[in-house]
Write a structure and sequence with these properties.
Length: about 425
């Protein structure tokens, strides 16, 4: 099943009229900018949102398909905001819950768009997006480091609460945002596909420094988990003893350089003091009956008695804080149905993600980069609210698009349309 507005992979089709080729080039540049601008999160509206509508409209005009493989994601991204809208109905006179729900609908729409884009011409489009995203990470990390070291002499620029925040409002979001860029650079170094290894290593260290200086416990732990999943998946997928030795040696070398960099940063008094504070398992706002965890324990019995939840953004009216847990937040904002849909979205995507990195296909390598980062966000959702993070919806689209591409490739492989032994990049044509 595929609904076509134009031939599949229209932007990558054979050259046609010069005007059409120019429009396709503009569409590609707008898409790269769309991804790059994900790092601008100083406010609820950013350049990402300004370019979103014209980019989506142009790509739809040039031709996108809705593949069977992404239909489960589409269904879940329709049902999730639908549950929020149902819970919103008694509060339509309240501006903030309405605005929040509209923004959620918009973000779910971008998730569907990304799934449609990456399902065709998958390798080229994934590379374009990951390069743009990594450039975005480098830009934000450099801005954050410059701000933290007060090199510009402008107070509170690119850092907040004594922590690096880069181009984000929240240091926690900033630190987690950088993880995918780090995975992309590290994967290229491990597999020997980096064209300029020295520059890739320098970029990796800058991004890791940004993650460290965010002093986000969730980002620290999440990055460790994501890197571990990626390294293990790359090692397991390699059939070469030489490549496996390279993976082990480079992982150890990167770890060593990272520890040296951290030791150097800890020589600064401000860094050392903040590290000692943030390295604690819990903070003051986590503890007590009215702390983060106390609110969650008191709120869960209340949610069990409310099938329609509290209504979007009403948890904060009861407890004075956000739930800081996307699973609880989904039940609070969208009722039992909204919470169940969110859990189903996470569960289904987890199955797809691990299947992608454990089965041989031309798409396993990109899955080894994207899925560990998204898996990290699913784990972080237990201690932070991720449902309004723009890049999470991009990664959802990426993972499900990779699965759609893998299923299509597998079907063609069974019919002999591709070499049955062809599963490495560059050996498969027609997608």
């Amino acid at each position: 099943m595929a609904h076509a507005a134009a031939p599949a992979g229209a932007l990558a089709a054979a050259p046609g009229l010069p005007l059409i080729d120019a429009v396709r080039a503009v569409a590609g540049a707008m898409f790269a900018a769309f991804v790059f601008f994900a790092c601008f999160a100083f406010s609820d509206t950013s350049p990402y949102d300004v370019i979103a509508i014209p980019t989506i409209a142009l790509w739809l005009c040039l031709g996108l398909r809705l593949h069977r493989g992404v239909l489960p994601l589409v269904a879940l991204l329709v049902l999730y905001p639908a549950a929020m809208i149902a819970s919103l109905l008694p509060f339509l006179d309240e501006e903030f819950p309405v605005t929040w729900t509209v923004q959620l609908v918009y973000l779910c729409t971008t998730g569907v768009f990304f799934a449609m884009v990456f399902a065709d011409d998958t390798h080229a489009r994934m590379e374009l997006a990951l390069k743009a995203y990594t450039a975005s990470c480098l830009f934000s990390a450099i801005a954050g480091i410059v701000g933290y070291l007060d090199l510009l002499g402008v107070e509170d620029l690119f850092y907040r609460y004594g922590r690096t925040s880069g181009t984000f409002q929240d240091p926690n979001v900033f630190g987690s945002f950088l993880t995918l860029g780090a995975l992309y650079l590290m994967h290229a170094l491990l597999t020997g596909t980096a064209r300029r290894p020295a520059l890739s290593l320098a970029g990796l260290l800058v991004i890791l420094a940004g993650i460290f200086l965010s002093f986000s416990r969730g980002s620290w732990g999440g990055t460790v988990v994501a890197v571990t999943v990626m390294v293990v998946s790359v090692y397991a997928a390699s059939g070469s003893a030489r490549l496996r030795r390279r993976i082990v040696l480079l992982t150890l070398a990167t770890l060593g350089l990272g520890l040296v960099a951290v030791a150097g940063l800890l020589c600064l008094d401000s860094v050392r003091q903040m590290f000692e504070t943030r390295a604690a398992l819990t903070q003051d706002y986590d503890e007590g009956e009215t702390g983060r965890f106390g609110n969650q324990l008191r709120g869960i019995p209340m949610l069990m008695e409310r099938p329609f939840g509290m209504g979007p953004m009403h948890w904060r009216l009861v407890f004075g804080l956000e739930p800081h847990n996307s699973y609880i937040g989904s039940f609070a904002n969208g009722g039992w149905f909204g919470g169940a849909v969110f859990i189903l979205l996470v569960g289904a995507t987890t199955v797809v993600g691990f299947r992608l990195i454990t089965r041989r296909s031309p798409y396993a390598r990109h899955a080894q980069i994207v899925w560990p980062a998204l898996f990290m966000f699913f784990l972080q959702a237990f201690q932070i609210d991720i449902e309004k993070w723009r890049h999470v919806y991009m990664m959802l689209g990426m993972v499900w698009a990779l699965e759609a591409a893998r299923l299509s490739w597998h079907k063609r492989r069974r019919t002999g349309a591709v070499d049955p032994e062809a599963w490495q990049y560059g050996t498969v044509r027609g997608r």
